[in-house]
Write a structure and sequence with these properties.
Uridine Diphospho-n-acetylenolpyruvylglucosamine Reductase, domain 3; five-stranded antiparallel beta sheet; 26% helix; binds flavin-adenine dinucleotide; Uridine Diphospho-n-acetylenolpyruvylglucosamine Reductase, domain 2; 7 helices; globular; four-stranded antiparallel beta sheet; alpha+beta; Uridine Diphospho-n-acetylenolpyruvylglucosamine Reductase, domain 1
């Protein structure tokens, strides 16, 4: 959303040794470790007293229909590369960010649609020890995972390192056509600049935007943050929006809507804690 200030520490994690070193640094300095993918579902406060790390492991190995991919890999790039090889991950088209971010929040379509967990076989993580978790151990649910429910904890935090996915085979041309049609639909119905995607989770089968709309909050603005007139579940930075503006919009929505809307976006407080979790 182009909101937020600086983190006390920042590191790019390229190797397993980097991950181990970052975790040690946090334990020794009693700091929180905050993994960051592409930041497309995260909003930071003005200054964050933590070590923010970006996993840059992007290696992708494809053996038949089995794909092992680094957490830092861009999801859209992976979808396109696999399409060219006749492997169909197109259901996740239009979701910005990395594999790590997508696994963390079990990114995907709406409550009744397809999410990344449909394709996951296992996830390799580092939390002070290297472990490979089965899909069951990842405890996936709608926009939920083991990683999300346990984060942020005091160090060591769980760092998603890579994942193994099983992808259905299909005709390349058909996959590419599907990608095109999904992208076209997204552009027609959603904003894509200076936003962090859906802010609230659906309640059962009711999308959050319907409740926000019904409460008359489409277009509501606090400072430089607005509820998008194009899609009522998207917050937009429409000027010099601040973290406090975004928090105030969320609080207004939660106050006006009796159905206790859960926040999907990650709001990171100055001490590295997550607000609204
Ligand atoms: C225009 C737009 C449309 C969107 N549409 C959708 C949609 O249809 N469906 C959907 O589900 N989401 C959607 N989103 C939200 C967002 O794209 C997803 O949540 C995405 O998966 C976030 O990926 P990221 O890499 O940017 O994660 P970030 O925002 O960087 O991080 C999200 C969370 O994941 C954690 N994380 C990231 N990487 C790691 C790692 N390696 N190890 C441990 N934790 C990690 C972070 O700590 C953070 O808490 C949309 C966003 C935008 C801007």
């Amino acid at each position: 959303m182009r909101i937020g200030g600086v983190a006390r520490y920042f590191a790019e994690i390229l190797t397993r040794e980097d991950a181990e070193q970052a975790m040690r640094f946090c334990v020794e300095n009693k700091l929180k470790l905050i993994p960051l993918g592409n930041g497309s579902n995260t909003i930071f406060s003005d200054n964050v007293e933590a070590l923010v790390v970006q996993v840059k492991h992007v290696k992708t190995d494809v053996v038949d229909d089995t794909v092992t991919v680094g957490a830092g890999k861009n999801l859209a790039m992976l979808i396109n590369e696999l399409a060219a090889q006749g492997l169909d991950l197109s259901a996740l088209t239009g979701i910005p960010g990395t594999i790590g971010g997508a696994i963390f929040g079990n990114a995907g379509q709406g409550p009744k649609g397809i999410w990344i967990d449909s394709f996951i076989e296992s996830v390799t993580v580092y939390d002070g020890e290297w472990k490979t978790l089965t899909k069951k151990e990842c405890e996936f649910a709608y926009r939920e995972s083991f990683f999300k429910s346990s984060h942020p904890s005091p160090p060591p935090t769980t760092l998603i390192w890579e994942a193994t996915l099983k992808i259905p085979k299909a005709d390349s041309a058909m996959i590419k056509a599907h990608i095109e049609s999904l992208l076209k639909k997204r552009i027609e119905t959603q904003p894509h600049l200076k936003t962090a995607g859906s802010c609230f989770k659906a309640i059962g089968d009711t999308p959050a935007w319907k409740l926000i709309d019904a409460a008359g909050l489409r277009g509501y603005k606090s400072g430089g943050v607005e509820i998008s007139p194009k899609h009522a579940n998207f917050l937009m930075n429409v000027g010099e929006g601040t973290y406090a503006d975004a928090v105030s919009v969320v609080e207004e929505v939660r106050e006006k809507i009796p159905e206790n809307l859960e926040v999907e976006m990650r709001f990171v407080e100055p001490d590295g804690e997550v607000r609204f979790s």
